[in-house]
Design brief:
The complex is a heterodimer of chains A (about 325) and B (about 300). By secondary structure, chain A is of the alpha/beta class. Chain A has helices spanning about 1-15, 20-40, 60-70, 80-90, 105-110, 125-150, 175-205, 210-215, 220-250, 255-280, 285-305, 315-324; strands spanning about 45-55, 75, 95-100, 115-120. Classes of the chains: A alpha/beta (about 325), B alpha/beta (about 300).
């Protein structure tokens, strides 16, 4: 026990003497939590929509107005052929092209299904998915109104299914609470993974581990002495981050703080273990950084922050569940 | 004869196909200064690491301070002070913090064993608050020795402690070792410098993982089996090549300002050599008999 205390004292002395350490502990979380949530948002506003209206009917007008009314799109017009619109898509001058073919609604009366074409620029895959989703929502609503119009008066209105969404936990689909907590989790993972891996590898790289190895320090004393400081820093970072998000974004923990802290503590032990593993197989800090970064990328991509788990291929889902 | 503090028997260590240590056996007594002398790559560091319980021998047995480094490594570690060849203290901690840290992990303190390290610590004390990384080479070695001694070890293992250290600090360092000896500590020290070999009580000459010979340094140089001749001329390099071509030459190599020359067994004839060299018209030719050093013995054993 006494030995652990001596190792801890030495570790903290070294950590706080390292000039890069204080910025890592304080400045990095502040910047990540204040700046990144603004940048890393899924909301896509003002995407450029080109409408090719070959129908020029009151119905097509109505559809166009529905898009115009949405704050997600800014409308562009004046082009009437699909070939021309392709060029604009190529140049990324527009993000999406909506083609309303001739006789779009009129044909419905004749028993044909009305057809629309939506051409989305998918160079940016996630953006394409999101704006296509918006467009489908608008078209769906329009579809419902149209169906009502067709069936005439209110008494003989054909029943259409109206879906009312209600989002749990985040009623307004505000991205910040989602993003901020995700960033906080990434941050804590990074601190624990990188700092612990680097710290032990540094002892190897500088040869100081040789001197430690000939002391009567036992394995568990060394490991606890080495990992506990970073567990503490990770915990501090988490509490600091939670405070910051509450102060800046007004995001409060709905459940018990103690549940969050104890499970985070457990999680950090696992991450520190991975850091330890990385440090075992690497001999220089440079190697350790690359390997730790590989794990970090894997965790971020597979965690579902940026892509939803369900859209991943089956094997990736298995990996993700295994990692989780 | 005192207590045997270090005993190695038939030590072997291989790294893949490389045989780093080949059936090495030696004993070190209490209060003895024992030198492992040999060039880089001779296997000295591997021997130290086996004694210090850092690597396991492939075969052979070791006892250090009465314990087996393989099975009783905790007991061994409490009783040895090891100074690796590379400076291995915390460069970002101050002199005092390093000493305190190593004292504390051995469950002792600087004041408890002050009289043992006093000589050394007094020299580094003025730099107490300086970071270990900012010390000069000689000071670093003194600090490392201090940290290795802080828990009153019975055996001190010093792997090339003076490599890269200036001549004055080297001399001081060896004086400190002599003083430690008187306190009953067995010191095993390695060095590639032959002049330092003469300062040990006994030395083991090591080449390619094998011990060539173990004896007191004087005895080793006395037992040089040949006459040694020192030669000098204005054209040293030409002289060396001519000497090597001489039909009765056993060996010829430069050593400081001279060339050391040894005749083949039974063919010793300096007059004939002189005639041969004069025939080649060397200027300022000097030939005199010399006293063999440990390095000469080493060269003779090696060839």
């Amino acid at each position: 026990m006494r030995t652990i205390r001596f190792i801890l004292r030495k570790e903290f002395l070294q950590i706080f003497r390292n000039k890069a350490m204080l910025p890592i502990i304080f400045v990095v979380p502040i910047i990540q939590l204040l700046v990144l949530p603004l940048a890393a948002t899924y909301e896509v506003k003002n995407s450029k929509l080109l409408v090719i209206d070959q129908d020029m009917s009151p119905d097509s007008q109505k559809l166009r107005q529905a898009f115009e009314a949405s704050r997600y799109f800014s409308l562009h017009e004046g082009i009437f052929t699909v070939a021309e619109s392709d060029k604009l898509l190529d140049k990324r001058a527009v993000d999406m092209v909506l083609v309303i073919p001739r006789g779009f609604v009129k044909n419905w009366a004749k028993g044909q299904m009305p057809r629309l074409a939506l051409r989305v620029n998918a160079m940016d895959g996630s953006k394409a998915g999101i704006i296509a989703g918006y467009a489908q929502e608008i078209i769906g609503r329009f579809n419902g109104e149209l169906a009502a119009d067709f069936s005439g008066n209110a008494f003989s209105r054909r029943p259409t299914i109206q879906t009312e969404f209600s989002y749990w936990f985040n009623t307004e689909l505000n991205y910040k609470p989602y993003m901020v907590s995700a960033i906080l989790a990434v941050l804590v993972t990074m601190v624990c993974l990188f700092l612990s891996a680097m710290n032990i590898v540094k002892e190897k790289e500088l040869g100081t581990i040789e001197q430690i190895n000939v002391t009567p320090i036992r394995k568990h004393e060394f490991l606890i002495g080495k990992l506990l400081p970073f567990w503490c820093i990770g915990m501090f970072e988490l509490i600091f981050g939670l405070g910051l998000t509450r102060l800046v974004y007004g995001i409060e923990l709905a459940g018990s703080v103690w549940v969050v802290l104890s499970f985070s503590g457990l999680y950090m032990v696992c991450v520190l273990g991975i850091g330890l593993l990385v440090s075992i197989y690497n001999h220089t800090q440079q190697q350790a950084i690359f390997v730790a970064w590989f794990f970090m990328m894997l965790f971020i991509l597979i965690s579902g922050i940026f892509t939803s788990l369900e859209s991943m291929p089956r094997w990736a889902q298995y990996v993700a569940h295994a990692v989780r | 004869m005192g207590k045997i503090n270090v005993k190695a028997e038939g030590l072997e260590k291989n790294y893949g196909k490389v045989q780093a240590v080949r059936s090495v056996s030696f004993e070190v007594e209490e209060g003895e200064l024992f030198g492992l002398i040999g060039p880089d790559g001779a296997g000295k560091t591997s021997i130290f690491r086996m004694l210090a319980s850092l690597i396991l021998p492939d075969s052979g047995t070791v006892r250090v301070a009465g314990f087996d480094p393989v099975k009783q490594y905790q007991d061994v570690r409490r009783r040895i002070g090891y100074m690796p060849g590379r400076f291995s203290l915390y460069q970002d901690l101050s002199v005092e913090e390093n000493v305190q840290f190593f004292a504390s992990v051995f469950g002792t303190s600087l004041s408890e064993n002050y009289e043992l390290v006093a000589d050394i610590y007094r020299q580094i004390e003025p730099f107490r608050d300086r970071k270990a990384g900012a010390l000069s080479g000689g000071m670093k070695q003194k600090l490392a020795l201090c940290c290795a001694l802080i828990h009153k070890p019975e055996v001190l293992l010093l792997d090339e402690p003076t490599t890269g250290v200036d001549p004055v600090s080297r001399k001081e360092f060896w004086q400190m070792l002599k003083r430690l000896k008187t306190k009953g500590i067995s010191v095993v020290v390695s060095t590639p410098y032959m002049d330092e070999a003469g300062l040990c009580d006994r030395i083991a000459l090591i080449q390619k993982g094998k011990i060539l010979r173990i004896d007191a340094p004087e005895r080793i140089s006395e037992s040089f089996p040949f006459g040694l001749w020192l030669l000098r001329a204005r054209e040293m390099f030409a002289l060396l090549t001519s000497l090597r071509k001489y039909p009765h030459a056993q060996s010829a190599y430069s050593f400081g300002e001279d060339i050391h020359f040894v005749f083949q067994k039974g063919k010793e004839n300096p007059e004939a050599l002189k005639e041969y060299l004069q025939g080649l018209a060397f200027k300022d030719l000097e030939i005199r008999e010399g006293k063999p050093t440990i390095e000469d013995c080493f060269m003779a054993m090696d060839s």
